[in-house]
Specification:
By secondary structure, the protein is of the alpha/beta class. About 40% of the residues lie in helices and about 20% in strands. The structure holds S-adenosyl-L-homocysteine and iron/sulfur cluster.
């Protein structure tokens, strides 16, 4: 049994000898009615509700400590504290009719990409599946509360109003999801469960720095999730400089693994490319990227570097013209691309930055 199973409420109820329908009632209360504590699950007999509260079974294993919202109000980020007093973060992006949540998968990250604040923290531990799942549960509860307040209507747990629930999940917060494979997959299954989140696997994106064994496992799994590869450079040498993990999983082998995933799943791969001025945004970088991806089912997401003082002075934000130039080169190779601006500077939203910042403020 994994640690994760041991700590799940479902497992506990079974260990207490509760009937399967009780487990279903609890799940319905947590995932559909979106209650905030056990006593809110009114379908349960009072003695069972009391037992859950009395046994000090944590209703949540992560506690929100601070939230910030972007000026346009569309992006909101919350910092949580785990039971062992570590910090993680999660972001909600609100688009009309579509809500996307960015989740963290580890506390810190061992990959050490040169531009990434999470990478600077090193790795503390993997998140449990429950800690991953509860990030999304938190946002669903917020969305429900807002809707109830706005409309004054009663919540419909079996048929929630359109656009009021999280519909897309991206594993682009802190950590490397494919180095926490079991727990990430277990969370994906909970997200997908029709009785829980009911989020289509096609609405889930796993972003990886390029952990080949994880990509291979995912290919075998035959789950049609979206795969995003954090590429950042199209040549092996430059990539090793920016992404130290490239030394363990070199570019050519990595692309083979990604190609197999793409062939098996039939999915277009998203390539993330953090643009660093003077490092990977020259004309030759665009040409190399175009050549690498021209015969592949690909979409490139350019992300202008979000400045972190702790990542060193030699890393600079690019100007938008240089990104447009890269996009034009890619167009020549028939490779579609977009520039991701949503996680803007104003809230220091690139992964890991909030956790670091508030640590400093609290000290
Ligand atoms: N570890 C995984 C998923 C989390 S990182 C991965 O690397 O894919 C999520 C994304 O945030 C990655 O594409 C990463 O490159 C990007 N990112 C990290 N630091 C950034 C920064 N300072 N500015 C802009 N994007 C950043
Ligand atoms: Fe880890 Fe991703 Fe940050 Fe690299 S970019 S250090 S893989 S979280």
């Amino acid at each position: 049994m994994t640690d994760d199973k041991k700590e799940s409420i479902e497992h506990l109820l079974r260990a207490w000898g509760e009937k399967p329908y009780r487990v279903e009632q609890v799940n319905h209360g947590i995932y559909r009615e979106l209650v905030s504590h056990f006593s809110g699950i009114t379908s349960l007999p009072i003695d069972l509700r009391e037992k859950l509260e009395k046994e000090k079974i944590a209703f949540s294993v992560i506690r929100p400590v601070k939230s910030i919202r972007s000026a346009d109000g569309n992006t909101e980020k919350t910092l949580f504290e785990t039971e062992d007093k570590k910090r993680i973060e999660s972001v909600l992006m609100r688009h009309i009719g579509r809500k996307t949540v960015c989740v963290s998968s580890q506390i810190g990250c061992p990959a050490g990409c040169v531009f990434c604040a999470t990478g600077k923290m090193g790795i503390t531990r993997n998140l449990t599946a429950r800690e991953i799942v509860e990030q999304v549960l938190f946002w669903n509860r917020i969305l429900k509360e807002e809707w109830v307040k706005e409309t004054g209507e009663k919540w419909k747990p079996t048929n929630p109003p359109h656009g009021v629930r999280v519909r897309n999940i991206v594993f682009m917060g802190m950590g490397e999801p494919l180095l926490n494979y079991e727990n990430v997959l277990s969370a994906v299954k909970t997200f997908n469960d029709p009785k829980k989140f009911n989020i289509g696997v096609r609405h889930i994106t796993i972003s990886t720095v390029g952990v080949i064994p994880g990509i291979e496992r995912l290919t075998e799994e035959n789950l049609p999730v979206h795969l995003a590869l954090s590429l950042h450079a199209a040549t092996n040498d430059l990539r090793s400089e920016l992404v130290p993990m490239n030394k363990a999983f070199p570019l050519r082998k990595l692309m083979d693994a990604v190609d197999r995933f793409s062939a098996r799943s039939g999915r277009r791969i998203f390539y993330e490319y953090v643009v660093l001025d003077g490092k990977n945004n020259r004309e030759e970088d665009g040409e190399a990227l175009g050549k690498l991806l021209s015969r592949r089912l690909a979409h490139v997401n350019f992300i202008p570097y979000n400045v972190n003082p702790e990542c060193g002075k030699d890393l600079r934000k690019p100007d938008i013209e240089s990104i447009r130039r890269m996009q034009n080169i890619l167009m020549k190779y028939g490779v579609p691309s977009t520039v991701r601006m949503t996680m803007g500077d104003e809230m220091a939203a690139a992964c890991g930055q909030l956790a670091n910042k508030s640590d400093e403020e609290d000290e």
